[in-house]
Structure of Magnesium transporter MgtE:
Amino acid sequence: MAQERAEEHEAEDLPALTEDLVESVLTATEAGDAALLAELLEPLHGADIADLLEQVTTAERREILRLYGREMDGEILTEIDESIREEVIEQIPADVLAEAVRELDSDDVVDLIEDLEEVQQEAILEALDETDRAAVEQSLTWPENSAGRLMQREVVVAPLHWTVAEAIGFLQREDWLPDQFYHVILVDPAHHPVGYVTLGKILSSKPETALTAITEDSFRTISARQEEGDVAYAFNQYHLISAPVVDDDGRLVGVITIDDAMNVLDEEHEEDILRLAGVGEESSISDSVLETVRQRLPWLVANLFTASLSAIVISQFQATISALVALAALMPIVASTGGIAGTQSLAVAVRALATRDLTASNARRVVLREIGAGLVNGLSLALLLGVAGGLIFGHVELGVVLGLAMIVNQLVAALGGVMVPLTLERLGLDPALASGTFVTTLTDVMGFFAFLGLASWVLI
Amino acid sequence: MAQERAEEHEAEDLPALTEDLVESVLTATEAGDAALLAELLEPLHGADIADLLEQVTTAERREILRLYGREMDGEILTEIDESIREEVIEQIPADVLAEAVRELDSDDVVDLIEDLEEVQQEAILEALDETDRAAVEQSLTWPENSAGRLMQREVVVAPLHWTVAEAIGFLQREDWLPDQFYHVILVDPAHHPVGYVTLGKILSSKPETALTAITEDSFRTISARQEEGDVAYAFNQYHLISAPVVDDDGRLVGVITIDDAMNVLDEEHEEDILRLAGVGEESSISDSVLETVRQRLPWLVANLFTASLSAIVISQFQATISALVALAALMPIVASTGGIAGTQSLAVAVRALATRDLTASNARRVVLREIGAGLVNGLSLALLLGVAGGLIFGHVELGVVLGLAMIVNQLVAALGGVMVPLTLERLGLDPALASGTFVTTLTDVMGFFAFLGLASWVLI
């Protein structure tokens, strides 16, 4: 696949961040050749330059910025990952930073500064002219991760009574239009959005057509307080391209476009994967060793305590194990197969909760389905393992115990995998948060308990 | 969060798939009240109706389709999940199905039929008029999951030499324009795309402006053979809204829009999460018990074999365990903490490979970082566990063995978590595929081996 990709890039002849290019950039940087560096980086998209800065070491990054810092523009800045943003901003000359920030739309400035330290925030806000600064400061009054932070305030609106000709005339006269816009939003006199018209419709309709006659069916407004994850869901579910954002009184205050929503969808996915795995959600591949430890060690310590539960369960059966040491060798099989089953059930449930395919309406049915599947899986594994265990150890009862424990633990896994995220969601928490650790603890403890308990009852 | 969401929906007063609505729909269905059912469903977006059909049982679905089948339109059909698509299509009257399909753009028809059985495919193709059928059949000649399958063939093009006025005149004359389009693509006489102009630019520029003077910087073409995951990556990375698709000779054959790319991104996420968890990637919350078993049992059986490796390792140390049964109770702590650490490292690596932040350029540095973090985590956990183990069991050497085994296994976990996906990627396989099972097997086996091995050496 890696090779296939490389070929495609060649075929398209597009500037992209290839291994060779990174190599050349680092060579030019080491040689202190600013001209060559500029020549290499200039054709790249800002997003690729940002990726490059993330992929190199801190020392290399400092050198690149020393040589190329004056070329940093707004596009590159907005693409730089949070994990290195403060560091990069510190190293850009103040006048370059001010110039870069002035290029940006209000939503990009908000995104850039919302996680910076106050001193850096101030410096950037001061670079903006008064209107822009007011717009950014107002956006920052909306809650973190809300639609209000995500929206851009540059909106193209038209009064309800306009015709296509009037709209075209207006668009041709204005010179402040945003870089990217796809709809004209119709507003009533109180500035409430009531519909929108695609530019395609405006261009292909007769001049005398009323705008109200060609509005889109899919019109949906978004509250500025809405959580950005819900915004991304709405864009994906209803195939929105842009959507007007309204304040608490229903008045139009901005617009969100699909590229921002796509970005949020991608970030939410990152959170899901990292949270399921029990890693801090700010983990990044460019973290330092210490940052990595900070993101992971707390979860590992927590796991130490939950794992001690297994140890306590097992230690209750020391007499049983002493009597038949083979039990110690076999017990991880039951526990680990349960862990995998729990993870499977969990992944499907967490994903379905994220896409809202698992709701209160079908939760009961899904739980019953999980129990059914857990039972069938348990029986199949029990048969396989019971027969194998019985044959290998020449001990029929041991095979029966293995099989029964497997059935019990598969049921626990299937139920735990779906009940844990459902409960977290019901409690208003993120269903992915730590549910992996939770479910594997459950299947470990139950796996050891069922197996050793049955063994001490049947065998000893 | 669930409550917050409900409030938001209320505030917006938008039709949405609430629990109450599902309840009402099922009541109306049970009562056989087709009029009420239609009244309830009519205001919903097709995507919500499709979700509803996924959330109910097979029997309920059959009843809903019996009462509402004649209202099924193209929009609903394209939104229906693959897992129930064949079943739904079978239950829609043939004339309704034909009508629904005729409404759709070519890319939606391709998406609808590509996974159907041949008989159903034929039936749908026959419903199309000749031009549309040819377009669909041609799209189907591109490889599965390629840009060629994703693109729509309805493209708005303009010759290179046109002005804004000519473009507007053209758009006003044509009546076949696609529902959604955001750019006019400029082509040379051989039909190679050479740039594109946003509709916003066309509307806001003077009539005599040459189109070539207002093209977008971000222009990128996509090969029809490109893998759809790469297409989604390009849209997300470069903030594309639409992109022209070219054949092997570089000629324009279609266009992909961002809503399709967002959909692919979402599906890729689903695959990542499910594959990491070792579930068949077609798993869905609406699967039957048997389908669920089919998606999960193979991985569980595979795990049975890998888990047996742990059992074999442990059984080599039966004499050691007999001598000190506390070892049996403690060994899962080392293994399970290693499992969590491996999963953490794995999640970060798989995610970074998907976003292309982990590449050959920085792989070595990331591996070194992981080793460093594994060492620090291992030392911290060893200290904690070694002291606790030593105190609780009053056995200093046992504490030392626990601590040392923990350090070894944290290193194995950190390395395994990043090397396994990197190796899979290098081999041209999906880095998420089964890597969870792989890494936990590694940490289990190494955890037991290090702990019992050290114990038999130091303690016995």
